[in-house]
Amino acid sequence: MTRPGTSGHPATVTGVDSPWALRDYALIADGERGALIDPGGGIAWLCAPAWHDGAVFSGLLGGAGRYRVRPADRWNVWGGSYEDGTLVRVSRWVTADGIVSCREALAAPGDRGRVLLLRRIRAVRGAALVDVDLDVRADYGRQPMTGPRLDDGTWRARTGALCVRLTGAGDARPDPDGGLRVRLRIPEGGTHDLVLELAMAPQHAPLDPRALWTATERWWKQAVPDCSDTAAPRDTRMAYAVLGGLTSAAGGMVAAATTSLPERADTGRDYDYRYAWVRDQCYAGIAVAAHGPHPLLERAVRFVADRVLEDGADLRPAYTVDGTPLPPERELPFVGYPGGGERTGNRARRQFQLDAFGEALQLFAAAARHDLLDARTVEAATVAAEAVAERWTRPDAGLWELEDRWWTHSRLCCVVGLRALSRELRIPASADWSRLADRILDEARSRCLHPDGHWQRAGDDSGPEAALLLPLARGAVPVTDPSFSLTRSQVVRRLTEDGCVYRFRHGDEPLGDAEGAFLLCGFTMALAAHAQGRHTEAARWFERTRAACGPTGLFAEEYDVAQRQLRGNLPQAFVHALLLECSARFGGAFGSAADGVPPAGR
């Protein structure tokens, strides 16, 4: 029997625990890769050595590979939290006889060729019996862990091209399937460290857990600012931590840590988000710029500038985090998360998305406000503006990566970007950019302004579109322009329900039937209300949207309002970025001129 929509993979899998609801997973990440931890103490997903490489633990999608640390007493209640301003997770279980915790992190700063997963078990109350179970399987479970041997208290093995080392489990014994198991006994108040290393080449340096924890704590302290000047300091620090954890030292930020998690069950809408979308990277950089200069802004500018200079008008929508083209889509060798698919790669690699150029221009302008533009970035900004001049009349796939059409959102994004850049860069081309923005806006008004006065989705689609709120909030037209208020009113009336915002209507289907509320749009609604001076209303949209996370504080792309469940890949970087931007702009520390909201358009 096979599940509808699959290509023949079995509908059930054996030897793998059922997955949890998406809201229950936590993320640990170091910029080069990320791991999802389930409430049962298992690493449900980890790709190594880099984001887009094969998973070594793929239980999230029904695949092989496991690394579990959990109380031997299965009669327990799980919980946990992040250490504030970090992606250091402390899992916690209350058992019949005590309390056990496990502090978990990927050692930072991350090393592209070497994964270090730290776990510190603590018997908080009562003595603890804890089971450890490890079976590393590279290349999405295709490569077993082979040749395990104990060398002076450290286990060594291989899986595919990866060299494995494990410390803290010297009493472990190999399983018939090649894994390692051990039961640890920890006295009340005691701790026990485990360090798992996965490396591209054999390593011989000692794995000192105390030194690794100290370096990781220091890195997070430097990576995340205080944020006490924002509207929601703790959640804003969490947003910084998520964005930092998803951003490689090479500059690229993955859209999410996972692939193939369904946006709606059995609809085929499940994609691989382990790549750096130019647009999402710009959202993150612009959000950080609203709060102040930060290394994440510099990384975003560098990554986007490099891609623009390399590809010019042929800029791709997305790349790997090190700037290479995306691989084509292919199926993975397991059943997939229930209701989802099993794929890697992304079809967006061949699309033309005009709005990405507009967002890049806005990012460069935001960097200029913080004096972060060098000659190379100015060159990239010029190339991006020239690409808009060359291609703005052509249909594109747009923000939602649909069929090629004359999407209104794409044109308004370019208007905002061209104007912002012309204000910040006093060079001869600036006047040309301003005039080009006027031309694009005039043509957009002619083709995309509904007779009732609101902006519509596209030149040939009169429907409402929540994405339009972002370029409107950023100055595509003056805040006093009737089209701004009419568009926002149209979105409120036709695309919101129970305080949540949906992207657009799917035919005659009721909101919530075709897809979940889109959290990015909830935050952009808050920005739009704030831009219009409706601060109380903006706060309501902001608070409703930031509540749509799981107990771990992570946001997915969509939120099922009726079931109160997360939908889609996890965590979604651009949702955390827009939370950060809203919190920074609403915090009261920056006026509209300082935080980058232009005073008016035409």
Fill in the keyword field for this structure.
602 residues, four-stranded antiparallel sheet, globular
Can you put this structure into words, describing what you see?
Helix 2 (233-245) runs antiparallel to helix 13 and helix 5 (355-369) runs antiparallel to helix 6 (375-391). The chain contains 13 helices and 25 strands. The strands form seven sheets. An eight-stranded antiparallel beta sheet has the order 6-7-8-9-16-13-12-11, with helices on one face. The protein has a four-stranded antiparallel beta sheet with strand order 1-2-3-4, with no helix packed on it. A four-stranded antiparallel beta sheet has the order 5-10-15-14, with no helix packed on it. With 602 residues, it is of the alpha+beta class. The longest helix has 20 residues, at 429-448. The chain has helices spanning 209-223, 233-245, 278-291, 295-311, 355-369, 375-391, 408-424, 429-448, 469-473, 482-495, 519-531, 535-546, 573-586; strands at residues 26-29, 34-37, 43-47, 55-57, 66-71, 76-82, 89-95, 99-106, 114-125, 128-135, 146-151, 154-159, 162-167, 173-174, 180-186, 191-199, 276-277, 318-319, 330-331, 343-344, 496-497, 500-501, 517-518, 558-560, 565-567.
